# Entry
Amino acid sequence: MGSKRFVNNMLSVFDLEIAETSEASRGISARVVFEYNRRTGLRSFRILSPGIPGSVASKLIAWLEKNVDPEDIELGFESRMLTAETLATPPPAL
# Structure
């Protein structure tokens, strides 16, 4: 019988590529730092790419905060298509 794994501390740097639309090959790429500490409750994302405008960086960080859960990470991040349309759409009301 297996036991559940927990992530206690994590520091990860990864590249996030965002297409303008689901059919477009053109888009932007951002280098992201993710820091997590279960004990202190720290969970932060930073965009390291200097060419990313602040408004886009804010949307990226908001999307990452909503969609990345450290408790679900066992062997790494799962790659998914992210488009500018996804970032522009407001999250559904609860």
Observations:
- The chain is about 20% helix and 30% strand.
